[in-house]
Amino acid sequence: GLHKPVIKSVSPAAIRCSGAGLFLSVHMERTVDDQYVLYLNERKVGQVKRGELWFWQDGVGWMVSRELIAELLASSPDGAIVSVRITGISENYDISGDFDKYRDYVSEPVPIEISRGETQFSDAKQLFPEWTYSSEPVIRCDTQGNIYLAWLERLNGVNQAFFSFSADSGETWSQVLNISRSGDRVSQVDLAVDGAGHFYITWVVDESSDAYFCRSLDNGATWHLPVRLNGYGERAGVPSLAIDDRGDVFIACLKSDGPAGLVVRLAVSRDLGSSWEARDFAVPSGQEYWRPLLAARAGGRLDLFAGRNSTSALYLDIYSSRDHGKTWLAQAVNAGACFPRVEYPLLRFGNDDQVFIVWGAYVSARPPSKWSYFLRRDSSGKWSAIRDMDEMFPIEDTRAALSVSRASVDLVFPWQGGLILLRSRDEGGSWSVPEIVPGSDGYRMSDSPDMVYHPSGKTFLVFVKKTADEGRLYLTQFE
Question: Rounded to an integer, what distance in angstroms lies between the CA atom of residue 150 and that of residue 346?
């Protein structure tokens, strides 16, 4: 027979959306009946059955259409408190309006707050329709407003490092180029530009753990041959690029050469990538290390953040230079406790020397567990406590996007129903109600976001929309 469902929680509990659908998860102790039907207020939404994708051991889910969301908000311009009910009674019987009559088989109502989006997004535009196996995009811009993209594209069964740029805010794009030009699979792409027509890209060849660098010095018209950064017998990974205000190029990576152990290597070129000098920063053994994070700022200021996780805490080894990387000061910061398996760390500086870092962590169990963390340092140099962003919203992936302006700190995370924008107007102290990015909505369809703050005052967001095993790049902008 049927049972009375008991809802523990719904996710999300509060959301903003305009022109987007909503994936709604309903959590229970255990799914007992063989099907459940969702009602929002008096409106029957649909049914899921045991064995289907959105029917789980401890809950069920529905994709609520953008049309229904618009209907629910039509009479409530300031937002609506919507009652969520589920029942095991088949969708063949519409019991809306008769919940009391069937109360033994209908859950008690649980509220969800749905509001109109506050952010003005442009229509999400597909880039490069001919390329359909794209992943892990990186977006940058220069002071003139030109936008640059690097990403991985599967070609002949292996990922390659691709590149294109736009001189008109993403309306048109240059010819797509395969920069790595390798028969080997590559990953960990990074990109930097200097506003003077000099483009730089790094990546890693997975099989050999070799890090490579490639450059164009004529606005992308021609590219030099790729150069390997590590020596024979050395293994390098997770390279990070930066260019300072006089055009010096910096690449930080993790380097291992067997008995000598692991070091953070900083390679510096003073001649646009023609020649290199290297400096190694020793790191303690027996810990898990992040991708080194580089930032170049005006006046020859450079900062290298080398994160490492011990069994009890996250430590940041911070190396700072005020003379274009000639001399360095070191500082170690105990940032607090978090889960140690780190992925995809990002670093941004604020206008008043604030520091903002976001990263993911995971456990490769069945099912895998994932977290997203945020850390900030204010303009006085004081560090906040690490914040688990999953406490605000159920993050689906460890890769996030981060941009910083004078007006806000913006984070974009993937979740089950698309991409979510979180905005802070007080330097990360508090955060807005999550907002769905229009054009990204759909069950586990969008991931790999990256974004950049543009001189126009807009933020450009690139992401991947997936269908089956394919991936396509999309671009949107907001302010």
Answer: 16
